[in-house]
Amino acid sequence: MAFRLKSLKGILVVGERNIFSELAQIVDIATQENLLVLKMFKMDYKENELRQLLHEVQILEKKSDDIAFKISEDITGGAISPNVIDNLLDCVKVADNIVDTYYYIGREIARMARAYAADFQKNPTNWDSVYENMIALAEKSLSKLKQALTSSNIQEILEMRKEIEAIEEQGDDVKDAGFDRLYSITSKLHYLEFFHYSELLHKSDDVLDSCEDFSDLIVSVVSSILK
Q: Is residue 103 part of a domain?
């Protein structure tokens, strides 16, 4: 995709610039959740500690819902170019879905902690490195999303989109290796553990997929404005 113009300054109207800034707030929330979920992965399923961290994630999720609602109202009722309204609304949905996915991951970890607390036999699996790798990739992807949303340079936005795509591909490799490992130790796991680890892999990968989708939408908005 080629653009003659290298800067968005003077092209985005005030309403569109404000929408991008508000979307960046949701990305900031997702980044905070990312750090909290990483802490939860390292808690070794200690129920009380996890409960407090999950509460913090839940507060962030509710904050994101409020911001997403406001942004949607701003898009449909503000000074926004008609040809980008649908894409901007999709941006809101994808951004909020990332936040919701982190809350789901947090809840899943907390649920498993309750199972272990109820004398469920825990099997040593040493999965920390798998999920920490996924979380580290998500942190990079979210950082580049924030950069794309706050940049006024078109070429930089396109570069961020390429880098986010590359990160998502790395995540696919980590996920696939994780599933290979998971299936190789199936005989040592209770079915609940298998489901739990599988869900964490899928949902961690969903975050990376959503980041890529978000970056595609940002580029679509920019290209529509430049037509």
A: yes
